[in-house]
Structure formats: C-alpha cells, structure tokens
Amino acid sequence: MNLHLNITQDIGHGVMIMFVCFMLVIFAVLIDLFTGVQAARKTREKIQSHILRRTVNKVISYLTVVFFGIFIDILGLCFPWYAIPYCCVFVTFAVILIEGKSVVENHAKAKNPASHVPEMIGDIAEKIIKCDNIKDAIELAERLNKSEKLRD
After folding, report:
1. Domain of residue 145, residue span
2. Whole-prediction pTM value?
3. b/e 20-52 (16+ beta carbons within 10 angstroms → b)
4. Contact, 65 vs 91, CB < 8 A?
5. Which of 23, 78, 143, 149 has the smallest CB count inside 10 Å?
6. What are the angstrom distances between the C-alpha of 96 and each of 14, 55, 71?
7. Do 132 and 105 fall within a single domain?
8. Residues 107 and 128 in one domain
9. Closest CA to 43 of 104, 110, 113, 108
10. Nearest Cα to 39, choosing from 122, 88, 105?
C-alpha cells in the first residue's frame, strides 16, 4: 500500500499563507492589547504587568491552535483538492473574530464613538436585506448619502 501525498502543490504558497496567518493572529492580539490599555487609561483603571503576561499567554495559546490547524492541513495533503491550508485560515479567521469582539468591547468600555460601528453596520445590512425593489434600494441609498453629508 503506497500513500501518495499531494506534494506537487506549491508548498511555498502554503507556507506563505501560514506565515500571514501567524502574523494576523499576533497583530490581532496586539490591537486588542492596545485598545484595552487605551480603555483602561480612559476609565482610569490601573494597568498592571500581569495584563502583558496574559497577552503573551494568549498569543501562545492562539498560535498553538493555529499549529493544530496546520496539522490537519498536512493530513489534507492526502486529497488532491486540498490546495491551501484551509484549516489554518479558518482558525485564524476565528481568532480575528474573537479579538475583534474584544476590541469592540474595549471601545464600548472607553465610550469611544467607534463602538457603535458594528451596530450601525448591522442596521444598514438589515435595511438592505429588507429592500424589496429598486425604489426601496434607491431611497435607502439616498438616506445613507444624506446622513453621510450631515457628518461632514
């Protein structure tokens, strides 16, 4: 019995995707740290060194999960359709979502105007979905343009 791994794929391309995933995880955690420190300063909370240690532990934990995704991707090389490290990308996407939620919470804690952006996007998406015809869509676009001009 001969096991043939589909190694004919572009290994360099897959390694580059994995490297980008690692960097995105690290940047997401650093952005969360930055917004957390900013929120703590704004609310006059004490910033302690254990927060930095917790951040390092969080990066290590997230990268460990990404490595397990890579192990699954290595098994995926047994299939000819498995072209890129799908699991690594999926895990990275999940980490970015988790850290993004934390960033939004930090903005809300600091009463930053950016904390309302996800709600606004959700409201706009809901209105777009409810548009039944072209007339409603044009009316919605005009209202959005008017509100944008009011902010300027």
Report:
1. 114-152
2. 0.67
3. ebbebbeebbebbbebbbebbeeeeeeeeeeee
4. yes
5. 149
6. 20, 15, 20
7. no
8. no
9. 110
10. 105
Is residue 89 located within the same domain as residue 144? no
For range 86-107, the mean pLDDT? 92
Q: Tokens for 69?
A: 């995704």
- Whether the CB-CB separation of 77 and 6 falls below 8 Å is answered with yes
Closest CA to 61 of 27, 38, 95, 34: 95
- How far apart are the C-alpha atoms of 12 and 22, rounded to whole Å? 15
**pLDDT tens column, 8-42:** 456 778 889 999 999 999 999 999 999 988 888 88
Q: How far apart are CA 59 and CA 70, in angstroms?
A: 16
